[in-house]
Design brief:
Elements: H1 5-12, H2 17-34, E1 47-50, H3 64-67, H4 79-86, E2 95-98, H5 110-119, E3 123-128, H6 135-144, E4 148-152, H7 158-164, H8 170-186, E5 193-200, H9 208-218, E6 222-227, E7 249-251, E8 257-259, H10 269-272, E9 273-276, E10 281-283, E11 296-297, H11 303-307, H12 310-321, E12 339-340
Parallel strand pairs: 1-2, 1-9, 2-3, 3-4, 4-5, 5-6
Antiparallel strand pairs: 6-12, 7-8, 9-10, 10-11
C-alpha cells in the first residue's frame, strides 16, 4: 500500500483524545462480542457515510442510481438536517464520507455541507464521476476544505470508458480533474488528495497501465484499482475480469462463480461505521442500497438511541448466526481485498 505523507499528516492533524478513545471502545466491544452471543457496543461510529443525493447523470449497469431501480424514496440531503445530524457525531468522527448512492455534486448545497463538516475538524471524503466539476466548482471545492476526492475513471478511451459508465464522457472527467489540479495549485492547497479510482472490469482491464500514465500526466495524487461488485455472478458475468486477482469472484470446477472471501460470521463494519441516507434513515452499511435493514431514522430519534436500539442489535446478532442468511451480506467485501495492487 502506498504512503502519501501530506494526506496522512492531514488526517492525523484532525485526531483528538476523545476520537481515539472512542475507537478504542469500539474495537474492545467488537472483540468482546466475538466471545459471546449478545452484541456489546461501546462508543459511536468512527466513520459515517452521508448520502448527498440519490440522483445520478450516468446509467452504470451495477448501480441502483444508474439503473433508476430504487425501492426506497429518492431525493437530496437538506443542509439544515445535515447540520443537526452531524452535530450529534462530530466529537467522535474520524472521517465523514459524503457518498452512498448518486452523484454528490448534483446536490446544490453539497459544498456548503462539506465546509460545515471541515470546519468541525472532520476528515471529509467524496466520490464523484467528475462531470460537474467546472472551473468555478473546482475552486469552491478546494476552498470548502474537502480532504479527499475519489474520481471514477474506468477507462482511458471513450469507447472503453462508456462500456461501464453509460452515457458518461471521459472528456468531462479529464476536464474536471484538470480543474481540480489547477485550483489546488493556484490556491497552494494540499487538499483534496486526488485519487483516480479505476474499477477493474473485463472491458477495461487492458488499460490499467494507461490509467497510471494518465494520472501522472494530469497531476493526480494517486491511482487505486478497485475490484467490482456484480449482482448476477453465479453463472458468470461479462464484467468479471479475466485476470482473477482483479475479481471478487472465483470460477468453480463446475463452471459457476462464487465470492472469493470466506463469509465470516462477524463484521467490524457494524461497530465502526454506518450509512445515513438523504432523508435520515440509518442503515448498517453501503451494501444496503435500498435501506432494507434500517435501524431507525434521525427524523424522529437521536443518533445514539438508534445506534444502540433493538433493531441494530438484532442485525448484529443475525451476523453472528450466519452471514450467508442475510442477502446483503452474502456478496459483501468484509474479508475481501477490494483495493488491488497493479
Amino acid at each position: 500500500m502506498s504512503f502519501y505523507l501530506s494526506d496522512t499528516l492531514n488526517f492525523i492533524s484532525k485526531l483528538s483524545f476523545k476520537k481515539a478513545w472512542n475507537v478504542t471502545k469500539l474495537y474492545a466491544s467488537y472483540q468482546l462480542t466475538k466471545l459471546r452471543t449478545k452484541p456489546v457496543v461501546w462508543g459511536l461510529p468512527m466513520t459515517v457515510s452521508f448520502e448527498p443525493t440519490t440522483a445520478c447523470n450516468l446509467k452504470c449497469p451495477e448501480c441502483p442510481s444508474g439503473l433508476r431501480s430504487f425501492s426506497r424514496a429518492t431525493g437530496n440531503l437538506k443542509p439544515d438536517f445535515f447540520r443537526q445530524s452531524i452535530n450529534q457525531l462530530s466529537d467522535t468522527l474520524l472521517y465523514l464520507i459524503f457518498y452512498f448512492q448518486g452523484e454528490p455534486f448534483i446536490n446544490p448545497a453539497f459544498l456548503d455541507m462539506v465546509k460545515y463538516a471541515a470546519d468541525k475538524n472532520i476528515y471529509t471524503i467524496t466520490s464523484t464521476n467528475a462531470h460537474f466539476i467546472t472551473d468555478n466548482v473546482a475552486k469552491r471545492t478546494v476552498q470548502s476544505g474537502l480532504d479527499r476526492m475519489i474520481i471514477s475513471i474506468d477507462g482511458t478511451t471513450q469507447e472503453v470508458y462508456e462500456q461501464y459508465r453509460k452515457e458518461g464522457s471521459l472528456e468531462k472527467v479529464i476536464e474536471g480533474t484538470k480543474n481540480m489540479v489547477k485550483w489546488k495549485n493556484k490556491l497552494n492547497s494540499q487538499t483534496p488528495h486526488l485519487i483516480f479510482q479505476f474499477l477493474v472490469v473485463k472491458p477495461n482491464e487492458h488499460q490499467i497501465d494507461e490509467v497510471y500514465s494518465l494520472a501522472q500526466k494530469i497531476g493526480v495524487d494517486e491511482v487505486k484499482l478497485k475490484s467490482a461488485q456484480v449482482y448476477d455472478y453465479k453463472n458468470g458475468n461479462p464484467l468479471i475480469p479475466t485476470q482473477e486477482k482483479y475479481a471478487r469472484y472465483a470460477k468453480q470446477k463446475d463452471g459457476s462463480y462464487a465470492v472469493k472471501n470466506n463469509l465470516i460470521n462477524h463484521c467490524w463494519k457494524l461497530w465502526h461505521a454506518c450509512v445515513i441516507t438523504w432523508n435520515g434513515t440509518i442503515v448498517p452499511c453501503c451494501f444496503d442500497k435500498d435501506a432494507k435493514y434500517e435501524f431507525g431514522s434521525l427524523q424522529n430519534d437521536s443518533f445514539k438511541h438508534v445506534w444502540q436500539n433493538e433493531k441494530a442489535d438484532n442485525f448484529r446478532s443475525q451476523i453472528r448466526k450466519g452471514r450467508d442468511k442475510i442477502d446483503i451480506c452474502s456478496n459483501c467485501t468484509e474479508g475481501c481485498k477490494v483495493w488491488v495492487d497493479s
